[in-house]
Amino acid sequence: MQFQIDNMTCGGCARSVTKAIHSVDPQAKVDIDLPQKRVTVESGVDRSAVASVLEDAGFSPRPAA
């Protein structure tokens, strides 16, 4: 699954995003493209759960185009 997170602007944001995703799936593979503000997640957890923890962490995920 891919998310566009427009308010992810720095390495600290990227670490926060990764930490949030790992809070629901410690085994998730998280790939962050900071210049494109895009996150790719390989996880068995459903998309809405991942989006929810990202919102809780202060980010605004939307489906990546």
From TrEMBL:
- Annotated Pfam families: HMA (PF00403)
Presence of the UniProt keyword Hydrolase in the record: no
**What phylogenetic lineage does the species belong to?**
Bacteria, Pseudomonadati, Pseudomonadota, Alphaproteobacteria, Rhodobacterales
Annotated organism of origin? Paracoccus spongiarum
- Keywords from the named record: Metal-binding
Q: Which residues form the HMA domain?
A: 1-62
Q: What is this protein called?
A: Heavy-metal-associated domain-containing protein
Question: Does the record carry Zinc as a key word?
Answer: no
Q: Which SUPFAM superfamilies match?
A: HMA, heavy metal-associated domain
